[in-house]
Design brief:
By secondary structure, the protein is an alpha/beta fold. The chain is built from twelve helices and eleven strands. About 40% of the residues lie in helices and about 15% in strands. The relative contact order is 0.10. The mean pLDDT is about 95. InterPro entries: NFACT-R_2, Rossmann-like_a/b/a_fold, ThiI_AANH.
């Protein structure tokens, strides 16, 4: 018998796999990949190797983008539709992947009470119901606190060997990790950009501008880097803060209508998305000058769409006021 596991690479999902594989069941680890979490990474691969399980990356980007936009059961504190997201992963695993991998049921590392909003008993039951396959979902870390699933009732797995962990303490999990010889596990939390307040604030702007669709998915990645300016609806500037930002922003050069980089004086890479007026292009050049090494104090040359153009010395008070008008700052 085989089981599929929702697998982030973290400790809880790893322990869930261990509890089931210790009962002689082959477990296949599924790392779901959206625009906001998951994807090929050393952490998940190292952990899968420790556990001795096969790791499969499951691309569900388009489906997940729809869920983020529609969020039929609401969002958390930020842009995270956790209940709909979790139920989508279970549903996809059941409808598409059980047959593909010849598996019989699905497990996850969720712990009752660990996250007050998305992992209380009502939320866990709601996720099961929304998935449409509630009887095939097992949560080994807190199974004894929940109604028995079909695999437990039918004796596919021994319910007595499952656990009753409740709450936010990680002590039991850490003791289990030591018992099972699981090392180098990451700290809890993180991993999903939708739970990040500053990122969510930026993404909400895209949503309000009608850009929370798959065709604009490149913007979801650009939002992660540097400074973000909104000049008007669907008209954005992405401005690097450091060299890594500059490199990442420039990778999306072909997606933009405006690309500004250094022509001698070190400064940020700037990518403009949208149809810009002459005045807005001039403003983007001034932003480069303001954040360049000379801080806008002297006339400089810049490369604008691969052409050398000049930026005069700035009126610093004026440009600072204009920057404050358009820049999207964190919470």
């Amino acid at each position: 018998m085989k089981a599929l596991a929702l697998f982030s690479g973290g400790l809880d999902s790893s322990l869930a796999i261990k509890l089931i594989s210790e009962q002689g069941i082959e477990v296949i680890a599924l790392n779901f990949v959206s625009h906001f979490f998951g994807g090929k990474n050393e952490r998940a691969e190292r952990m899968a190797k420790q556990l001795g399980v096969k790791l499969e990356y499951i691309d569900f980007k388009a489906l997940h983008t729809d869920i983020v936009r529609e969020a039929p059961h609401g969002r958390g504190k930020n842009m995270n539709p956790c209940i709909d997201c979790h139920s989508l992963m279970f549903k996809y695993a059941a409808e598409v992947l059980l047959e593909k991998f010849d598996a019989s049921f699905i497990i996850s590392g969720e712990v009752l009470g660990q996250r007050p909003m998305s992992q209380n008993k009502s939320a866990l039951n709601q996720v099961k119901k929304l998935s449409g396959y509630k009887d095939l979902i097992v949560r080994p870390l807190c199974a004894k606190l929940l109604e028995p699933s079909l695999p437990e009732r039918e004796g596919w797995i021994d319910r007595e060997k499952l656990l009753d962990i409740n709450g936010r303490s990680r002590q039991i999990q850490m003791e289990l990790a030591e018992k099972f010889g699981i090392t180098e596990y990451p700290s809890p939390g993180g991993g999903c950009m939708l739970t990040e307040p500053n990122y969510s604030k930026r993404l909400k702007i895209l949503e309000n501008d009608g850009c929370l669709y798959e065709e604009y998915s490149y913007l979801f990645y650009l939002l992660r880097y540097g400074r973000f300016f909104r000049l008007d609806e669907k008209k954005y500037l992405f401005v690097g803060r450091e060299n890594d930002d500059n490199l990442k922003i420039s990778e999306y050069k072909d997606k933009g209508s405006l690309h500004i980089v250094s022509a001698g004086i070190p400064g940020p890479a700037i990518l403009g998305i949208g149809n810009f007026t002459i005045e807005e292009i001039e403003f983007a050049k001034q932003i480069f000058s303001r954040y360049s090494k000379n801080k806008g104090k002297e006339k400089i040359n810049v490369l604008v769409n691969d052409n050398v153009e000049t930026v005069s010395a700035l009126n610093l008070k004026e440009i600072e006021n204009k920057i404050k008008k358009y820049i999207i700052l964190g919470n």
